[in-house]
Amino acid sequence: MLKLGVPSKGRLMEQTFDWFAARGVILSRAGSDREYAGRVEGHDGLHLVLLSAGEIPRELAAGRIQLGVTGSDLVRERLAGWRSHVVELAPMGFGHADLVLAVPACWRDCEGLDDFAAIATDFRAAHGFRLRIATKYHRLARAFLSAHEVADYQLIDSQGATEGTVANLTAEAIADITSSGETLRANHLKILPGALIHASQATLFAARSADPAALAGLARQLGLAGDKVNAMPHRHP
Ligand SMILES: Nc1ncnc2c1ncn2[C@@H]1O[C@H](COP(=O)(O)OP(=O)(O)OP(=O)(O)O)[C@@H](O)[C@H]1O
Ligand SMILES: O=P(O)(O)OC[C@H]1O[C@H](OP(=O)(O)OP(=O)(O)O)[C@H](O)[C@@H]1O
């Protein structure tokens, strides 16, 4: 039996159902909108569980689900060394969103990461504390800034309405998801050129601990390249 975790609400859930339906596997909610049980038609041995998108990476890593649909950003953020826990079986072509670094639109001289690094160093000298970047993507932001040799900053945890932190004077910059760019514009922020941290989209992941034969059967039905499944070493969670 393979357990498949799918986001429990909104566009991610609906587009996931459409993606599977187009490949002959019909997923649906079992009961009312409030019931988090699911039904599967078209593939024996597949069981649907509806979960928070943010919890799917952890459930995969723990081996409580063998397949999961979530944003590629969430897997990278939530799982240290994500490749040792999961395999990307298929990017699904929806749920596109860019994780970016954004700064006040009025920082006209800040045109790239080098400028940002210099501003951060000057900021620390002038204010006696490090420039604050608000985000819920701590792991990805840190790795990106370190790779670009930006050192004089501190991360401020923000679990929502992150774009508002700059106007509220609790941060100087943010690292957050943008899609249409509306929220950044409305909050007088601009994407720092060159600061695309991760281009995310909804992705079907498999746990490395999953049974390869069962996965190969499903991958065949979904028309996915078998090489990723076959290359998976069998690991116990
Ligand atoms: N405006 C957006 N447009 C497209 N995708 C987005 C947008 N905002 C977030 N996403 C993506 O949606 C996925 C789920 O995001 P998030 O963690 O905010 O979930 P949520 O809707 O708050 O659900 P939950 O709280 O149940 O986990 C992430 O992969 C994220 O990249
Ligand atoms: O570029 P845009 O199209 O304006 O979209 C970006 C916004 O969408 C997401 O927020 P969401 O509404 O998912 O809520 P959140 O703040 O709780 O993450 C994200 O955190 C941004 O705030």
TrEMBL record:
Pfam families: HisG (PF01634). GO terms for cellular component: cytoplasm. This is ATP phosphoribosyltransferase. It comes from the Bacteria. Pathway: Amino-acid biosynthesis; L-histidine biosynthesis; L-histidine from 5-phospho-alpha-D-ribose 1-diphosphate: step 1/9. Keywords: Amino-acid biosynthesis, Glycosyltransferase, Histidine biosynthesis, Transferase. GO terms for molecular function: ATP phosphoribosyltransferase activity. Catalyzes the condensation of ATP and 5-phosphoribose 1-diphosphate to form N'-(5'-phosphoribosyl)-ATP (PR-ATP). Has a crucial role in the pathway because the rate of histidine biosynthesis seems to be controlled primarily by regulation of HisG enzymatic activity. Residues 53-211 form the ATP phosphoribosyltransferase catalytic domain. NCBIfam families: hisG (TIGR00070). It catalyses: 1-(5-phospho-beta-D-ribosyl)-ATP + diphosphate = 5-phospho-alpha-D-ribose 1-diphosphate + ATP. The keyword Signal does not apply. Its EC number is 2.4.2.17. It is an enzyme of class 2 (transferase). The lineage of its organism: Bacteria, Pseudomonadati, Pseudomonadota, Alphaproteobacteria, Rhodobacterales. GO terms for biological process: L-histidine biosynthetic process.
